Amino acid sequence: MNTSVTIDPALKPEGYEGQGFFATRLENLVGMARKNSLWPLPFATSCCGIEFMATMGSNYDLARFGMERLSFSPRQADLLIVAGTVAKKLGPVLRQVYEQMAEPRWVIAMGACASSGGVFDTYSVLQGIDKIIPVDVYIPGCPPRPEQLIEGIIKIQELVQTEGIDRRSTPAYQEKIAKYNLQ
């Protein structure tokens, strides 16, 4: 048995290292902590919700990405996963859920219906949730496979890790918020 194998459980952020110490920027440390502790809020309205449930199951195990705790309260969530068709009557509810979420917050539009209305080009279906709330990652498919959702979550984690801790004060974020008439 080879006992000289060492396993590094997490990639360290860029910094200075020596015997007995490690120093990095606070922004890098916070990004790494946020990346590995997202609390998703599923907003599942149709078949994409079933695929989300499969992703939480033992075959795909979303818990390996630090998301074993789903939050069904917007005030305790920081990742909104909109999975499925959103009717125009449901639009104000979705927007209220987004506004109640804690900052910083991120959004995934899962599936063709959440991204663009899907096959439902009717008067009653919202043609993409980006009409009412900002979206960070779009996951295509009808319905998308769990592997696609995992890839979307990895993209969100990359975004979370590289974003600064002063995200709300950046001009780009202020412009985005103003576009959607959010606080």
What this model shows, in words?
The structure is a single chain. This protein is globular. The strands form 2 sheets. It has a 4-stranded parallel beta sheet. The chain is α/β, with parallel strands linked by helices. It is 34% helix and 14% strand. α1 packs antiparallel against α5 and α2 (47-56) packs across α5 (146-162). The chain has 6 helices and 6 strands. The chain has helices at 26-35, 47-56, 91-100, 111-116, 146-162, 171-179; strands at residues 15-18, 21-24, 40-44, 79-83, 106-110, 137-139. The chain has a single domain (39-179), classed as Rossmann fold (3-Layer(aba) Sandwich), CATH 3.40.50.12280.
How would you describe this structure in keywords?
183 residues; alpha/beta; Rossmann fold; 4-stranded parallel β-sheet; two-stranded antiparallel sheet; 34% helix; globular
